[in-house]
Amino acid sequence: MDVLERIKTTVESSPIVLFMKGTPQFPMCGFSSRTAQALKMVNAEYVSVNVLEDPEIRANLPRYSNWPTFPQLFINGELIGGCDITLELYESGELERMVRDTRKA
């Protein structure tokens, strides 16, 4: 399976997927840390992928998503965005609604 197929499979395997540097417990960059924290604050259950452990995914995810930076948050198979967008959604209450909606689906 090529790397773009692996990314697609990962994105479709769970309602919420966060591609980040490090892990939620040990984030390796501030943006990843803040994004994971926002998800924690809305009690999101999600799959995280440490792009530092998989250079192939790190190199090809921006091509897959058309988004150049990390972290990258996907909800229901769609790219939501990175840290700034996730924090804006959190502050507006929208992130909580999106997470809640994944539980109903």
From TrEMBL:
Keywords: 2Fe-2S, Iron, Iron-sulfur, Metal-binding, Redox-active center. The gene is grxD. InterPro entries: Glutaredoxin, GRX_PICOT-like, Monothiol_GRX, Monothiol_GRX-rel, Thioredoxin-like_sf. CDD domains: GRX_PICOT_like (cd03028). The lineage of its organism: Bacteria, Pseudomonadati, Pseudomonadota, Gammaproteobacteria, Lysobacterales. Residues 16-80 form the Glutaredoxin domain. This is Glutaredoxin. Belongs to the glutaredoxin family. Monothiol subfamily. Pfam families: Glutaredoxin. It comes from Tahibacter amnicola.
